[in-house]
Structure formats: C-alpha cells, structure tokens
Amino acid sequence: MFDALSKYKTNGHFFFERGQTLSQVCNATEQPGVYYILMLRKGKIELVYIGASGTINQQGKFSK
C-alpha cells in the first residue's frame, strides 16, 4: 500500500483513530505541498481527503 509513496521527495504515513484530530497525527502541514489521505478498511483502500498546506510567495518563501 505504501509503495506508491516512494516516488515523492517527502512522504510518510500515520494511523488516524476515532477521537484524534488530523493536526495531532499528520505532519503534512509543516511543509508546502499537496497531500492526500487514504483509508484502509476491510482490505480496501479509499481516497478520503486531498489538501494543500500553505502557499509559496513570489520570493519563494513558505507561509502557512
């Protein structure tokens, strides 16, 4: 399942459980870029969320 992540410069995974917030378990917002979240349930993988973290300004600086 995580083999698809190897083609990206920065990647990772986390386990998200009931009662947690996304900001507690996901570090995707610490760097600029696009991220997607997959759900593995009952042997099936499903795309559940696509997001973007921050912006890059004209000087090339990242801002949240």
Q: Any overview of this molecule?
A:
The structure is a single chain. The chain has 64 residues and is mainly β. The chain has one domain. It contains one helix and four strands. The protein has one helix at 22-25; strands at 33-41, 44-53, 55-56, 62-63. The strands form two sheets. It has a two-stranded antiparallel sheet. A hairpin with a 5-residue loop joins strand 3 (55-56) and strand 4 (62-63). The chain is globular. The termini are far apart. The model has no long low-confidence stretch (mean pLDDT 79).
Strand content: 35-45%
Low-confidence stretches: none
* Category by helix and strand content: mainly beta
N to C succession of SSEs: HEEEE
User: How many angstroms does the end-to-end distance come to?
Assistant: 30 Å
- Total DSSP helices: 1
Oligomer: single chain
What would you report as the Rg, rounded to the nearest angstrom?
Answer: 14 Å
Shape by Cα distribution: globular
Provide the fold topology.
Elements: H1 22-25, E1 33-41, E2 44-53, E3 55-56, E4 62-63
